Amino acid sequence: MPSLSDQPLIHHLQQFEFKTLPEVPDSHAWPVVNDHPHGDDAVPVIDLACPDAARLIGQACEEWGAFQITGHGVPVDLLDRLEAQTRRLFSLPTGQKLKAARSPGGVTGYGVANISAFFSKLFWSEGFTIVGSPHDEARKLWPDDSAEFCGAIEEYTSWMKPLGCRLMLLMVASLGVSAGDIDWAVPSKETTHEAALPVIQLNSYPACPDPDRAMGLAEHTDSSLFTILYQGNVRGLQLLHGNHPTGRARWVTVPPVAGALVVNVGDLSHILSNGRFQSVTHRAIVNRTQTRISVAYFYGPPAHFKISPIEKLMGPQQGPAYRAVTWPEYLTLKRRLYNQALASIRLPTEGEESRTNTSEMITAAYTRRHEEAKV
Ligand SMILES: C=C1C[C@]23C[C@@]1(O)CC[C@H]2[C@@]12CCC[C@@](C)(C(=O)O1)[C@H]2[C@@H]3C(=O)O
Ligand SMILES: O=C(O)CCC(=O)C(=O)O
Ligand SMILES: [Fe+2]
Predict the structure, then answer these.
(1) Which residue has the least CA distance to atom 13 on ligand 1?
(2) Tens digit of pLDDT for each residue in 70-83?
(3) Could you tell me the pTM of the whole model?
(4) Catalytic-labelled residue, pool 81, 102, 250, 292
(5) What is the predicted ipTM?
(6) Given the CA of residue 127, which atom of ligand 2 is nearest to it?
């Protein structure tokens, strides 16, 4: 299926003008959005200043693959500026935003999430991806007036880097592993932590005339170690919570908590923890009256560093569940395989029949299934 970036400009314009429509057009109409039971169980809210933070974070990573954090130190007025600048970006005329359209096969700029290519229906959302410095992309949107936007993004990034590092260390500590066992996670002159380029995804979900038939962002896990998500005060983020006593996974809305940030565990932490931490399946739904925005900061390891299950977590009965991958390698797998990327690097467990579990076979099976069951 062609990706958005392969389509002619006219389709881009039609795709992103959906906000002004009085009803959801067929191109954006999903048959069933509320297809799982909903739960009222609540994702944990953890104060980072609390002495028990590491244990609580470990528990949340195992049970939910997500938690909200308070006591993180990021100034509220910076969060307000980040939100205002994000809204300013998405309020630009579509033609202007398309000047920064993501190029074919590219990563940065304006467009839809990569996973859109796996669905025949379009998302009720638009995104803007920044890798490293925001200046080049922002200049395409505001040739003379990008300073305020870039200032907010750069300042936010400068808070996210140490916060990410702190969270990583708390997560690792909760596994009973010392920081020395993952020395890439601790920034120093000797290590190349700085080589992990910050990746920020700005999302906008316009108000929708028929929210039950539209999908903001379809279910997925993030590829990162974890993602720090600012979601403002409009509900829309839902997590799939699997360990419910009824035995059925349930969609649970993450309620906005003033000043809190959401942390979603990504696939690389699932690999690092040899399967102990869950990478959380999540999605964004839309609503009738308010445009929702979110800002995702994807925290990953330095590009050259291979992530593999931490040796100390293995014993005679438990070998590594996954082969080693770098973040860029894994991102490529994710782009090709969507939610089969993890399975494609899974190693057979002891005693298991040797599986011909190559990514090619999985791709073929996955593509077949998707072709048959396209929504
Ligand atoms: C670093 C990245 C993670 C991401 C791909 C990207 O290069 C930038 C966008 C990210 C995003 C956001 C929406 C969901 C997602 C699966 C997607 O299609 O694009 C994630 C990607 C990911 O986590 O693999
Ligand atoms: O908007 C949200 O709440 C979720 C965004 C998200 O999952 C992402 O950008 O990866
Ligand atoms: Fe996500």
Answers:
(1) 113
(2) 999 999 999 999 99
(3) 0.90
(4) 292
(5) 0.99
(6) 9
